[in-house]
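Protocol step 4 of 6: structure prediction from sequence.
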Amino acid sequence: MTKIEKRGGTLGVETRSADEKRTLVGYAAVFNSDADIGGWWTERIAPGAFAGAIGGDVRALVDHDMGRVIGRTKSGTLRLAEDSRGLCVEIDIPNTTDGNDLWELVERGDVSGMSFGFSVTKQSWDETVDPPTRTIEAVDLFEVSAVAWPAYDDTEIGKRALQEWRSANPAEPAPEEIEDPAAAPVTKASQTRARLKMGLEIKVRSTR
């Protein structure tokens, strides 16, 4: 699971109780909603992206912590569904320390976001715009989480995906194929590529 990405947003999560059953309800993802991923690219999730994944064995976690399980599709305590808006999540909260604490925090409004951990299995990139747009068309879904800080992290995986896409879909000649570098076309894609390269070089230097 080295290629797990995490995405989330302030999409809201609410508590519902009936008899002694406590359920958290919210959306872990919304379709066709553009998100700025750290300035590197714009990302959107296409309808149907979760269709092949929600039938798997998915866990519900607190803050993406694999040691803090609060639900599971296999046991029926986590239910997932795609609707016209996105990925709908229902979690039956357990009578555990994590479950009770989370219930209290959601009711107080301290925890108000949901997120999900996934691996992309089908995607497309549009480099005619700056920054590029990534459309996620299908995923393997590993977990959904209630989170206090719904962030868009793990951008390194997305950067590698963009480079792989460019390698498979060359849009312009490589620099060594251009006899006169001054004649090379200046495009948004090449400008974005230079910015990505510069950002990665700066990051490498800063971590040494």
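Step 5 (inspection) to follow. Confidence is low (pLDDT under 50) at residues 202-208.
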